[in-house]
Amino acid sequence: MSDWIEVCGLDDLIADSGICVLAGGRQVALFYLSKIDQVYAVDNFDPIGKANVLARGMVGDIGGEPMLASPLYKQHFSLTSGRCFEDADIHIHTYPVRISQQRVAVQICPESSL
Ligand code: FES
Predict the structure, then answer these.
(1) Is 3 in the pocket of ligand 1 (CB under 6 A)?
(2) Predicted model pTM
(3) Can you tell me which atom of ligand 1 is nearest the CA of 110?
(4) Looking at ligand 1, which residue's alpha carbon is closest to its atom 2?
(5) In this structure, what DSSP letter does residue 80 have?
(6) What is the pLDDT of residues 16-33, one digit of tens each?
(7) Does any ligand 1 atom lie closer than 6 A to the CB of residue 17?
(8) pLDDT per residue over 58-83, tens digit each?
(9) Distance between CA 16 and CA 108 in Å, rounded?
(10) How many whole angstroms separate alpha carbon 77 and alpha carbon 59?
(11) Which Pfam families does the protein's record reference (predicted)?
(12) Cα–ligand 1 centroid distance for 111 (angstroms)
């Protein structure tokens, strides 16, 4: 079972930048990529820098794949799969995003609390 948790309004998102929200006790970083009009949600925790900072990372794309650059050591993470472009052994959790009536919800699955 996984739960959809409403976290903010569409208006709270900042184009091509991140915000951090709390969802089910987890810090989730939300990004709105204006060029492709998509919202992505990933863990705010940087597994390499070991700090909750990813919402402050820069977004863009690598070879057409939406990505986020950590503000700490500049590793790049896919916003769709969570994989780290520089280290195949490392990934961040990604969360499905749903937008309904101008409200943004993320889906938290049980494994994500590990
Ligand atoms: S969100 Fe990563 S395992 Fe479920």
Answers:
(1) no
(2) 0.91
(3) 4
(4) 93
(5) T
(6) 999 999 998 899 999 999
(7) no
(8) 999 999 999 999 999 889 999 999 99
(9) 23
(10) 10
(11) Rieske_2
(12) 5
